[in-house]
Structure formats: structure tokens, C-alpha cells
Amino acid sequence: MHHFTAADIRSFDKLYRLNLVNAVTGFKPANLVGTADTAGATNLAIFSSALHLGSDPPLLGLVTRPATVPRHTYENIRATGCYTLNHVHADFVGPAHYTSANFPREESEFDAAGLTTVWRDGFAAPYVAESQLSIGLRLVEELPIRLNGTVLLIGAVEHVYVAPAGLRPDGTLDLAALSDVCISGLDSYYRVEPLARFAYARAGQGPQPLPS
User: Fold this and answer.
1) pLDDT number for residue 36
2) How many domains does the chain have?
């Protein structure tokens, strides 16, 4: 088994270190973050840093990179307070990845990637029409991470849109039915396939399988 110390990691070539550290956490969610500026100009960017923070109230976190260069997504979220998370599916994984390119502010990634902007229920941020699971969030808190200049954005869930095929009667989601993909590192995409489901774990009972 390979063993890397912190000193080893610091000594690695930048690209090698970037690839390794971005992959060590395992598979990450693939989401397109939709935003607009105060004039309504749209922006779309792929993120793999969304995380669950709580269900009551429903809160999701999103980590943004340091604002050492213009960060259009972050700037739009701060300006309007609204943003969307849109799941990426296998049939548009290439266009989704393309949104990670460094486009000028005046060019919408929706247009560049060939994805469709859709506005829903008066919300001030655009959704991706091709996505079958989309979430509308309102920024409620920012937590600067001083160690590396990143920022944890905390968003309150205001809207959830999910295709019928992806919603089970108990409220769980069948992401495989939606052809969801996940990300390893910065550039590798994988299909989601079901393995097993288990009932709520209780001490002394052992794992209780559920039908998938």
C-alpha cells in the first residue's frame, strides 16, 4: 500500500497533488450551480462540493474556491442571494463538464454548453431544464475558511423539483433511475448503480436489508 505523509504531499508536483487530494474523499456529487446577476445575465458552473447540513430546517452547504480571481458564481450568489443545484445525468455529462472552462462574464455557460435555461416560480436563479432533480436555495450564511481562503456557503432549501421516476413513496430518491452521475477528482465521471438499502440501524438488531 502506498503511504504519503503531509510532507510528501507538499513536495508533489502541483498537478499530481491536485489530482490526488481531489480524489481521496471518494465519489462526490455532480451538480450544476445556476445563478444570475442583478441584471438577469445567467451563469452555470459544475461543482462537486455540495453537502447536506441538516433536514430541519433543510440546509445544504456549498464550498467555493478562494476569490483570488473573479468567481462569477460566488459573486452572483452574494448579489441576489439565490442559486440552484441541478443534478448531472449521463446524457449531458460532457456539456456539464464544459461549464468548468474559464468563460468571460458576458458569455453564459448555458449557451456555451448547449444547456437550457428555465425559470421557475419567480425564483431569481435559473434552473437547468435537462436536470431531473433541481433545488432552489437562498443564501443564509457564509463561513470563511481562513486556512485556505475558501468559503462555505449555507443555503436554505426553498424549492425541490424531482422527476416522478426518482421519488420513492417513503421520500428517498432513486438516483439510478434518473441516470445520475458522480465525480472522482476533477475530471472523471461515474454512473450511479444501486447496491443495497437498509432499514434505520438499531443496536442489537444487525443490518436489516430493504427491497431496492
Assistant:
1) 97
2) 1
For residue 18, being part of any structural domain is answered with: yes
The 10 Å Cβ neighbour count of residue 90 is 13
Tell me whether residue 195 is in a domain: yes
Q: Is 2 within the bounds of a domain?
A: no
Residue 87, pLDDT score:
98
Domain that holds residue 171: 9-210
| 164-186 mean pLDDT | 95
Supply the CATH number for residue 147's domain: 2.30.110.10
Long-range contacts of 71-75 (CB under 8 A, 24+ apart): 72/35, 72/43, 72/45, 72/105, 73/33, 73/35, 73/43, 73/45, 73/47, 74/151, 74/153, 75/37
pLDDT tens for each residue of 102-137: 999 999 999 999 999 999 999 999 999 999 999 999
What does the pLDDT read at residue 211? 82
Distance CA 47, CA 60 (A): 13
- What's the pLDDT at 150? 94
For residue 69, is pLDDT > 90? no
Does a cis peptide bond (omega within 30 degrees of 0) precede residue 57? yes
Whether 172 is covered by a domain: the verdict is yes
